[in-house]
Write a structure and sequence with these properties.
The structure is a homodimer of 193-residue chains. Chain A is mainly α. In chain A, 68% of the residues lie in helices and 5% in strands. Chain A folds into 2 domains: 5-84, Arc Repressor Mutant, subunit A; 89-181, no CATH class. Chain A has helices at residues 5-20, 25-36, 43-50, 54-66, 89-117, 123-150, 154-163, 166-181; strands at 41-42, 71-74, 81-84. Chain A has a 3-stranded antiparallel β-sheet. The longest helix of chain A has 29 residues, at 89-117. The termini of chain A are far apart. Chains A and B meet through α1, α5, α6, α7 and α8 of A and α1, α5, α6, α7 and α8 of B. Chain A binds a DNA duplex (30 and 30 nucleotides) through residues 24-26, 42-44, 52-56, 58-59, 62, 79-81.
Chain lengths: 193, 193
DNA sequence: TTGAATTTTCAGAAATTGCTGAACATACGC
DNA sequence: GCGTATGTTCAGCAATTTCTGAAAATTCAA
């Protein structure tokens, strides 16, 4: 591997991380290299820098394209295809979230929905369905939230994340406000009464 | 595999999903089976139901314990260890988030921090560092947010998620309120002026 | 067109990961 | 303690995944 040490460390780390996710080591390393690169790189240069065969790099880039994690471009005076990652890390996060959702979450929701349509044939099956139902609800809520925040512009999303748990306070305040406005009396704990 | 059809479908699906994540097929299936089960199951029963060897199940359960995804208990009058998943799906989500963070995110942050301490030896390395810096910032923000919402009780977390993107409106309102209170004049677009 | 440069495909080799049975370890009732 | 039921480990076989080189396909300039 023909890289400055910090780059090499990052590339190796992402190779390992890649294999903990579904993605394989080669693909993780190619992505990491492109992410750090100053300029778009052609496949043969990637192969040379990482010490992989040209064909392996070709397959890895295909997979990254399928994930929409790299884009292809042509540089003037060079016939080769050059690859790069988006500049903006938030852009990358959004793409990752969409793709993982499409590949992992949606099929799971479909399976759960289909199963929940069936009539359970025994108490055991009824229990299994109840479990699936509660899983379905949690996943729906999480993905619904994701859909929602995906629509926010970067700036708002970042503001929201920075606010973190303090959002809960704002909500509390809003709830109390609602209670007052609708004149619904506050509930009291037994001790208070 | 000796299971009612809906259970079998769910178990197989989670096996596949497991292998898309770092976790392997066996482990995914064991987890899915326990998740749906009405009662805690002993290892030999798991092995029988899924058609795996007893030793394979033993290793799978060890891994699930390391992830804190199953708990072990003893039933009266039975010497065998029985395994179950938490009842509450939100509890499971929290554990998953913590464990993935510990295994995947924290080591990455450490690597980035260490690398960013070094002095770049070239323009190329300086660029790579700048990229790592922006990645570091995004990951920090995301994990900081996660830490924050992890502290909320379930009820509040759920309320927050249900609110989804509408939170942004509350924030906007709050910002405008801040502007008014601090008497900082609202910025106007060119067209308005 | 032609042919050189580049990319893709794919059969099979190499590496990795998963799985099993047998041996070993441990826990528990007696 | 003893013996049996239960749990763990691990060497090695099996299955899967990854990777390569060679060949085929594509692209593009002339």
């Amino acid at each position: 591997m023909d890289l400055p040490p910090a780059t090499a460390a990052f590339v190796l780390h992402f190779g390992e991380m890649g294999s903990r996710w579904g993605i394989n080591r080669t693909v993780g390393q190619i992505y990491a290299l492109l992410f750090l690169s100053e300029r778009p790189l052609p496949a043969d240069e990637i192969a040379q820098k990482l010490g992989f065969s040209r064909s392996n790099v070709s397959m890895g880039l295909k997979e990254l394209e399928a994930w929409r994690l790299v884009r292809l471009q042509h540089l003037p005076g060079d016939r080769r295809e050059h690859f790069s990652t988006p500049e903006d890390v938030w852009q990358i996060v959004r793409i990752l979230a969409e793709e993982r959702r499409k590949r992992e979450v949606d099929p799971t929701l479909t399976l759960l929905r289909d199963t929940l349509m069936q009539r359970p044939a025994s108490a055991e099956e009824a229990h299994a369905q109840a479990r699936m139902q509660s899983l379905y609800e949690v996943i729906s809520l999480l993905t619904g939230w994701m859909d929602d925040v995906q629509k926010l512009p970067d700036e708002r999303l970042i503001a929201l994340l920075k606010l973190g748990g303090r959002v809960a306070r704002v909500l509390e305040a809003t709830e109390r406000f609602q209670e007052i406005v609708t004149r619904k009396p506050r509930r009291r704990a037994a001790k208070e009464g």
